[in-house]
Amino acid sequence: MVDTFVIPLLKIVIVLNATLVGVTYMVLLERKVIAWAQSRLGPMRVGPYGILQPVADAVKLMIKEDITPVRADKWLFTAAPIISMVPALIVYAVIPFGSEVSLFGRQVTLYITDINVGLLYVVSVASVGVYGIILAGYASNSKYPLLASLRASAQLISYEVAVTLTLVSVVVMAGSLSMVQIVNAQYNSHVWFVFAQPVAFVLVLIGGLAETNRAPFDLPEAEQELTGGFHTEYSGMRFALFFLAEYANMIVVSSVVTTLFLGGWLPPFPNVAAFGFLYYVPSWAWFLLKSFVFLYLFIWIRATLPRYRYDQLMNLGWKVLIPIAIANLVVTGIVRVLLL
Amino acid sequence: MQGWFSILIMIALGAGFALVSIVLSSVLGPHKPTPEKAAPYECGMPPVGNARERQSVKFYLVAMIFLLFDIEVAFLYPWAMALRDLGWNGFAQVVLFMLLLAAGYAYVWRKGVLDWGSDHA
């Protein structure tokens, strides 16, 4: 009873809450880091050094007027933010945050579930989020959101091909789609997959930036051309849901890249006797540390790089990333069969 | 089945969170609609025409190529899982399949479907 119902339910509630709180603080971190990059202070007023800013933002968005434009399709206009939010949250079901801990004399696994098609689940759920963006643009019935959502969906599907194609080479390496098994495969091969698959790592990182609409691929939100992008007509909590979904997706991409390429919960030099002392650090701490590095990298890139032009963006996706991904897959396959 | 049940619960909780926050904000927020506020945003000018006009055919072409490539990738996942058992035979078959697709890819590239420059608009 406790093992089948209470513990999974507790894990789900903890993960969802941690995600939502993490997302709000991610926004604060981004504002702070970008402010420092531009020699500003960032939010300073709410709480010491602005650490209560996310609470103030949440309350503010909650009590704003929620406007539905007259020409909008009312039901789709409300459904779109929900459709973008839910996939961003449910991906966390298969992400292993750590191996096992013993709590109150009970062995608890630090992941909600380990389905045998974990990676396929991540890829397919992540692509459902595109519907939220398309519907938001269509339902708004306004020119800027419609153009932005068309651009966004063309961008997302272009980079999705490159990313899913690249992930196949990770599956070839691991021989499994289960996220836990992929981490175990890195344990058994004594090396993180980032060293075995450096090309795939770079491709997934670039694709991850594009899939989350982050700079330098944030064309769907290009303020100078499209005002607010696909959520121009949104206000109040429905706008906040798009915002939360975008940042939740950033955490998803960081966690997935950490799991697939940086050994998930494993310390550096996994399964090497000389570095056994690294196992004194708990597994979840390694995972969080590595994910945080990627989140910081996302912000750093946004503060550093200018935005791509749309034709450059599509060229990069279709004419550069996809051929490299195919070549990488063929080479990986040859090496795999040779090493049988 | 245990695993999928947890995912169902997460879907319910995630959608519940989104719905509750939308309902809460509509209860807590003010309601003072004016015609200007409810009009579609066009930089402060009165909106001109309908937004749902014809769009560039480029977007449809990209969507079609995406479908082909995504189906290809869907075929590759089971192959990648079983590559250890398939050996050179299975590898050669998939490379043949990918070569056929690459021929189509080269065709759309030469036809300019992947070009988004101003001279192809």
Structure description:
- The complex is a heterodimer of chains A (340) and B (121).
- With 340 residues, chain A is mainly alpha-helical.
- Chain A has one domain (62-339).
- Chain A is 67% helix and 2% strand.
- Chain A contains twelve helices and two strands, in the order αααββααααααααα.
- Chain A has helices spanning 2-37, 53-62, 74-90, 118-140, 143-174, 179-188, 193-196, 198-211, 223-226, 236-261, 283-304, 310-338, and strands spanning 100-103, 106-109.
- Chain A has a two-stranded antiparallel sheet with strand order 1-2.
- In chain A, a hairpin with a 2-residue loop joins strand 1 and strand 2 (106-109).
- Chain B is mainly α and 121 residues long.
- Chain B has a single domain, classed as NADH:ubiquinone/plastoquinone oxidoreductase, chain 3 (Methane Monooxygenase Hydroxylase, Chain G, domain 1).
- Chain B contains three helices and no strands.
- The longest helix of chain B has 54 residues, at 57-110.
- Chain B is flat, with a radius of gyration of 25 Å.
- The relative contact order of chain B is 0.06.
- At the A-B interface, helix 1, helix 3, helix 4, helix 5 and helix 10 of A face helix 1, helix 2 and helix 3 of B.
